[in-house]
Design brief:
The protein is of the alpha+beta class. It has 13 helices and 12 strands. Helix 1 runs antiparallel to helix 2, helix 1 runs parallel beside helix 4 and helix 2 packs antiparallel against helix 4.
Length: about 500
């Protein structure tokens, strides 16, 4: 009894030392695996640290993944290279035999049939998921001890940590693969859209020219027999042309190589063409007209940034659009304070201004109101376009700048004319503005509240305030919903 009492503190100290060693081992291995996303690196790191902690002379680790083209990942340490293939084959056979459902320490010893291949005396099989499982084998300890029960328990805990790391790595691999597939699909989509945009350019221009020639030839006939048909055809061609230029703005910022190629070709042949036309037309300035036509059809409207007074630019564009949208009964109020000049190409600036005003008109019922303001916002120049229209639902707001996303029914923009109420759009205008903002350094944002009387996207506004059963006056409509776009430009 006295000897037992003397041995108890020693046994307790040994147990505490063992527990401390186990905790330190678990911490070290877990710490090394945290943040690793490469499966091969995880396997190699885990094997080396496990061998080091247990003092194993040789060891291997492998995984078999039925979902990968490279099914087996195999990492051996301490073996002759000539034995690797045989060891991998034996490990595969043992893994297929064990079919683990979790982490299992096998009673089987993986024995090498050759004298150069040492026995794996401690083997653990593990399952990562339904498609992936693995095997870990450790050789004899350097000091010659057997693997104790406590060693095997610690090894089981360590392998459980390995399984968690492998799961995370597989999720990361799957996510990266999915992202790469999306990137490839987006690239293919962009190339296809850009190609189709270029392919559309020439036939649209030719059809437009043919319609112009046809109109000249039909002048001798009564207008009532052809005017409406030709007007519809011209409007359709114009719509196609707008789509083509919108796509071109989005895809490549209007940098069209066709114009450069044709212009260079024309320059090289200009002298011969001019001589030929002079001979045939007795000095007609047709060469210059051809050059202008090439510029109209294929010329990029990009230009170097110029200094612009935003208040004047907005006032001019409002007057132009006011005459176009005069059939709508909408009060467009402009507050344009003198503001510092901004520097931006005219073409994208006018597209932004006109696009926002058109959007406001199309979303505002007759007898409604639109406010346009230009002024200073600190050291910046700001354009605000506010309509008191139907507004946009929260779900649609989240995707409004994504492009080709319609908040109106598709048939609306297919059948209605520009500036009509609820005409909608092709969904490219706001995406194009967003791209312009990134390209030319201004910021565009939007706030909106859906009309409280028609809270859902499918709810219909009658298109005229006096026809609304909820509003007794225009003020009632103004307070029910609306949308505000803000465009902030850096000043010169």
């Amino acid at each position: 009894m006295e000897k037992e009492n003397r041995d108890r503190p020693r046994n307790l100290t040994d147990e505490l030392d063992r527990q401390l060693f186990n905790f330190k081992t678990l911490y070290d291995v877990s710490h090394e695996l945290i943040g690793l996303a490469d499966v091969k690196l995880i396997l190699k790191t885990f094997l080396l640290m496990t061998m080091g902690n247990f003092g194993a002379i040789q060891g291997f680790i492998m995984t078999e993944d039925l979902g990968r083209q490279e099914r087996t990942r195999f990492e051996p340490v301490g073996f002759y290279e000539d034995d690797h293939l045989l060891l991998e084959e034996l490990a595969n056979q043992l893994l297929a035999k064990s079919r683990p459902e979790g982490v299992e320490l096998l009673k089987d010893v993986l024995r090498g049939p050759k004298s150069t291949m040492p026995d794996m005396v401690c083997v653990a099989a593990f399952k990562v998921d339904e498609r992936c499982s693995g095997l870990l084998g450790l050789g004899k300890k350097l000091i010659g001890e057997e693997y104790s029960k406590e060693d095997r328990e610690l090894l089981g805990i360590l392998v459980n940590n390995l399984v968690a790391s492998l799961k995370n790595a597989r999720y990361s691999e799957a996510l990266l693969k999915a992202l790469e597939e999306v990137r490839v699909l987006n690239s293919a989509k962009d190339k296809a859209i850009s190609h189709l945009s270029h392919e559309l350019m020439t036939p649209i221009a030719l059809v437009g020219g043919c319609l112009t020639q046809l109109e000249k030839r039909l002048k001798n006939l009564p207008e009532e027999t052809w005017e409406k048909t030709l007007t519809r055809a011209t409007r359709a061609v114009h719509r196609l042309s707008e789509i083509q230029y919108e796509v071109e703005d989005i895809m490549k910022g209007r940098k069209i190589r066709t114009h450069r190629f044709i212009s260079q070709l024309f320059d090289q042949c200009a002298d011969e063409i001019e001589l030929l036309f002079e001979e045939e037309t007795e000095g007609s300035p047709i060469v210059e007209r051809i050059r202008q036509r090439i510029d109209e059809l294929f010329g990029s409207k990009d230009a170097a940034p110029v200094e612009v007074r935003l208040d004047r630019c907005v006032a001019e564009n409002v007057e132009t659009l006011r005459s176009i949208s005069e059939r709508r009964e909408i009060d467009i109020v402009v507050h344009a304070e003198p503001a510092p000049t901004i520097k931006i190409p005219i073409d994208p600036l006018e597209k932004v201004v006109k696009g926002l005003i058109r959007n406001a008109v199309e979303n505002t019922p007759d007898e409604g109101r639109i406010e346009i303001k230009v002024g200073n916002n600190g050291n910046l120049t700001e354009l605000i376009v506010k309509d008191y229209g139907v507004g946009i639902t929260g779900e649609d707001q989240a995707r409004i700048f994504e492009g080709f996303y319609h908040i109106q029914d598709t048939m609306n923009y297919a059948t209605k004319k520009p500036f009509e109420f609820n005409a909608g759009g092709r969904g490219a205008d706001l995406l194009r503005m967003k791209i312009f903002s990134e390209q030319f350094g201004f910021k565009i944002s939007m706030t909106s509240s859906r009309c409280i009387h028609i809270p859902k996207s499918g709810d219909i506004c009658p298109g005229r305030i006096s026809a609304c059963g909820f509003c007794k006056s225009p003020e009632d409509c103004y307070q029910s919903g609306g949308t505000t776009f803000s465009v902030v430009f850096p000043v010169q």
